[in-house]
Amino acid sequence: MSAAHMDWDDERVREHVQDLERLLGRLDPAGALAVQALVELYGEALGRVVRLAADAGITSALTGDELIRHLLLLHGLHPETAEARVRRALGALDGFLGKHRTSVEFAGVSGGTARLTVATEGRAGPPRPVLEAVEQAVRAAAPELDRVEAGAPAPEPVLITLDQVRSRA
Prior knowledge:
The protein has 169 residues and is an alpha+beta fold. The chain has 8 helices and 3 strands, in the order ααααααββαβα. The chain has helices spanning 10-24, 29-56, 59-63, 66-74, 82-92, 94-99, 128-141, 162-168, and strands at residues 102-110, 113-120, 147-151. Strands 1-2-3 form a 3-stranded mixed β-sheet. Strand 1 (102-110) and strand 2 form a beta hairpin. The mean pLDDT is 87.
């Protein structure tokens, strides 16, 4: 592996992953088994790196890198729960949500689904671009989740007083 690989930015990594996925789709069964064995070997090595990083107190240095974070998730080695990662991602959206007068309540993760309630000021449903940004942030933080359920809150009950009814009659 050349030293140039060490200088890849996240975009170059994403392009490489796409190329690799195309190539993997063309493998014969024996080639697929060889790749699987190699992935398992690298997964074991990565697990050891994570344990050493935890012992040294530098786990956040690993999880802060996009490529390493995805590899940790792929191998089931990410030290943080999906719920913790989703909460952090939603917290990072506070400024964006504030500009759109939108709030997000995170109900947690269950059965591979992140459950959210997203509302704009006045308890209305959010505009589609805001909802998409929230869903994208959750999926980026926890790509292992199967679904993101983002519902609107139940409408607040409207109280009509007896005096209001009498005044209309």
